[in-house]
Amino acid sequence: GDSYQHAVIAQLLVDNGGLFNSWEPYAELQTFTYHFGFHSAVAIFHWLTGMPVYRAVLWVGQILNGLAVLALYPLSMKISDNRWAGSASVLIAGLLLPMPMFYVNWGRYTQLTGQVILPTAVFLAWKFLESSKRAWALAGLGWLAIGGLALTHYRVLIFFVIFIGAWLVLHLRKGRWTHALSRLTMLGLGGGLLFFPWFLHTFAGSITRNFGRQLTTLPTHLSDFARQYNAIGDLSRFMAPLGWLLLVVAVGFGLWQRRREFLVISLWWFMLLVATNPHWLYLPGSGSISNFALFIAVYIPAGLLIGDLIGQWAAHWSSCFWKTFLMILIVGLALFGAKDRLGDLNVGAHALITRPDLRAMAWIRENTPESAKFLVNSFFAYGGSVVVGSDGGWWLPLLAGRANTVPPLNYGTERGPRPDYRVWVNELTAKVQQFDIESPEILAMLRDRGVTHVYIGQRGGKVNYEGPGPLNPDVLLKSEHYCLVYHQDRVWIFEIVR
Q: For residue 413, which of 79, 26, 156, 33 has the smallest C-alpha distance?
């Protein structure tokens, strides 16, 4: 569901040789204020390999999926100073938990990329804040990591800021606040300077304004959708009950030991939970970090803290026999988890593009004029604020070079060709769901918007959507206003008869 806008942004980076403002020829948007770390990685991978950008999105996403897990090892070593703990952290996060493996089903690659950088940024900042000398090499690496994180995912940057808060709370109790604040200022200024020019640029769209509005909205003024969207829901979606139990045991054991590094991680994620749910304290800010975004990152504290528990347990096994037994156990769990993780992929439920769609798009490039514009399946998302595609028709601008009626999801925060662009886009989907496809209202709206064709993809408009409104080929076949020009497998293309 998220991969389309990521592929379009990466393709625009390739087309423009860098950053851009206009989304032409793939969309009518006129600003670009979204974070672009993942898309830069895709563009570089494309330049290195020659692979088409839309395929590079999938490959880079999986490379980063592995790196997000491996990135936990140095931070685990910082907490435990125990290689068994580091290995256990990677094992748990990578093979025994559904996250982050499940991200591929959503195409949620930007948050994933941020979470590749996050453990590194935390590790470097932690080392620098505790160093007794002016470690300029650490400072420089910290600036790059923080600046890169800010440009990669705005919400994950908040995760890092809250870590600094947790570290500061525990460090100030030791009475070294002057040293801590001077180091923190130095670290923040370097990373902030790298991000500041782009931060100013974000005001061209509405991302920053929307975030400010979320931060200042009181709990009593939250909409029903905001409350539902930020609900925690079923915790077993993110981690099995046994994992939650082990996490509670690990936290309890670590608190009993009162090791400062362990306390920092525990306090960090507790503060993140409170920041995600400020309404618990009757404070504004709900939605700035959603519970969904927080809990799909639960593999980070679970891997670190449960891994630490296993490391502490293994440290007492000094004999060669028990170490060999533990190694065999880890390898066995890894093989079991690897097999289990393959079951996380649910292509049938989440894939928008299929081979029949790709064949149809090749036909479109060869048999329709460049000015053709396609009505495609779509539905309302995010409380009705935007519409998203529900089959391969959403990908037409990128893969077939033809316009459609559903822009990338970013149209909700970027500036369009008219002040009411978001409302204007949404209006067509609302009318199609409300009226018959043959009604004069729909036909007039299609004519006014220059729509020349209708595309029904292999998935029939039912990806992530079970409501009313998917375009029905049987209705179009019986209509005198639509002429069938292509049908293979379950892909249908109709030309609108003027």
A: 33
Contact between 312 and 88 (Cβ < 8 Å): no
Over the stretch 172-205, which tens digit does the pLDDT of each residue have? 765 567 777 888 888 889 999 999 999 999 998 8
- Give the span between the Cα atoms of 375 and 492, in whole angstroms: 12
**Per-residue exposure over 200-225, b if at least 16 CB sit within 10 Å of its own CB, e if not:** eebeebbbbeebeebeebebeebeee
Q: 187-196 burial, b for 16+ CB within 10 Å, e for fewer?
A: bbebbeeebe
User: Beta-carbon neighbour count of residue 313 at 10 Å?
Assistant: 14
Q: Give all strands (DSSP E) within 306-412, no chain letters.
A: 373-376, 378-381, 386-389, 403-404
Q: How many angstroms separate the Cα of 119 from the Cα of each of 61, 113, 116, 122, 205?
A: 18, 11, 7, 5, 29
Q: Are 42 and 10 in contact (CB under 8 A)?
A: yes
**Which residues, 6+ apart, have CB-to-CB distance to 247 below 8 Å?**
239, 301, 302, 305, 306
Q: What is the dihedral of CA 37, 41, 43, 44, to 10 degrees?
A: 130
Q: Which of 490, 492, 493 is nearest to 354 (CA)?
A: 490
DSSP code for 349: H
- Structural element, H or E, at residue 488: strand 482-488
Give the side-chain half-sphere CA count within 13 A for 259.
Answer: 17
Tokens coding 17: 């040789």
Q: How far apart are CA 80 and CA 60, in angstroms?
A: 31
**Strand pairing partners for 373?**
403
Residue 385 DSSP code: T
Measured CA to CA, the distance from residue 146 to residue 126 in angstroms comes to: 12
**pLDDT (tens digit per residue) in 374-403:** 999 999 998 888 999 999 999 999 999 999
User: Rounded distance, CA 368 to CA 360, Å?
Assistant: 11
